[in-house]
């Protein structure tokens, strides 16, 4: 981040205003935390370099359904704190919101110097509209569902399913890069972090098992007649966890960016990087304020917060409590056998100056 | 509007992106209508001039409490219609939202070519926060309220009240112009429309009587013990309807803008310019869909939509139905004696090139 900020600053000076975008900003308490960190780094760097800070244009982006009102209401306090901490007044930093899919154009040509996106690019473009939740190739023209009994790539999924998912990710990530290429200045920097996988095999357990357990929870409800099996067959999560190689290939193919850094980091399912055991007592329970949830319960709660809108729109609101109760049990059982991990991919690129 | 668009376009060509801002955009069905009209005019003008349209950066501004989510949700349809009507795709027009008070800076330096504001600048800066609803000079240091029994300038208000209101408006409008001066390019155009008055006397009946009747409705409730009179004494609407001369003087004093046009237009209280009697039947009732409200009822409904949040935060939610019922009666009675009118001031200025 430090290097990217310094580099982006160098590209800024002639224009004297610097464009920064957070793509997929969401609306939780973390939204403005990242922005705040970036702004502070910029002011520190300018101070170190002995130059005046440029005026900052900060754009917060997410889909039109995001709760931007919640962000806006917290802005006056954010500006007050920013002024207290950095001395930057209301004429130094201009925050705006842009609603739309980052798989298309969002900003004017050559207007951005620093682009940031966290935990968003593993969602496929089909997640943008609730109407079509699946990569389109997962259903034949005759209406036959290819990924029976599953909601994501699984060990038992036919190769056509893996291919359809990868193909959709390639299309989407290419469109993302092409849009940003138009919007960024030459030499502008982009930092992306999203879910990925360490195995070359997209159907390997690491990277798929969280969805696998949710499929199992759904199927157990289907076996008791609570959910129609056809409903499960026709649902496929608009999500893809790519390998670093797949990502690098698309960046190379698109051609507008140079990779500075690309790496995967292991993260425990229940949060924090591997090796960090703080927050767990000896009985495998997460100690989390007044709640005393099992690790499975905690994971289920987190996952529910992320996927509920999507899952609910397909299976119905009434199913949610029971679904995530069963899911928590399955996760608890899984934790008793192994210590599951996600892979978080971090990609840093520069907009090249050739085309 | 046509002239302002053509003029602003001339200032745009070298930069090839054009900054447009709607200040006080609100969130009703009209919000994107004005933007749509502006965009269409720009594309028509470019087509007439035989030049390529610039990329448009459109900023929608209002206070942080505005319902921006409602605007964002309607954007996808807006873009679809825009493309159908003008051929402008998603890479031609970029809409963003900026939450904050237009009495301070909102945008980077020299970034705006065309600024527009409708029905907003009659609200004083003290309306920005609900905590202090009055121009501060209306209460003495000893805590004595100067505008007893009234909630706006009235015939019986002491001269100090009129002076306090004017002084607050002067400060606010000056700050508005100074902020826009920093944000606009040389030659950029600004179109402002807001409530004003035709009389040089700020206490004249035209321009104050709508608030006068609301004071009367409140006082009638106070006389029955429903509201404490002290509550009315301590409330003063954060609103001011200036004369054209007062506005011109502030523009001249601030010094960054040249007045192209400044004019007041009469508008009937119950909507539409004077002389337009459509929509009224012979019994003085407004024919309005399924509702059959009296003219007073219709005016009360409109005014309630505008001022309720403000009035409610001071007098309490429980009072609102009764207050606006009494208000409707008073307006009906007033209509039986006269045909009341607002003055809508329209001001068109250019950012000068001197400083």
From TrEMBL, chains A, B:
Statement: the UniProt record of this protein carries the keyword Disulfide bond: no
Superkingdom of origin organism: Eukaryota
Key word Methyltransferase present: yes
A Pfam family that the UniProt record links to this protein: Methyltransf_7
GO MF assignments: metal ion binding; methyltransferase activity
Signal peptide positions on this chain: none
GO biological process, one term: methylation
Keywords from the UniProt entry: Magnesium, Metal-binding, Methyltransferase, Transferase
Recorded family membership: Belongs to the methyltransferase superfamily. Type-7 methyltransferase family.
UniProt xrefs under PANTHER family: S-ADENOSYL-L-METHIONINE:CARBOXYL METHYLTRANSFERASE FAMILY PROTEIN
Listed name of the protein: Jasmonate O-methyltransferase
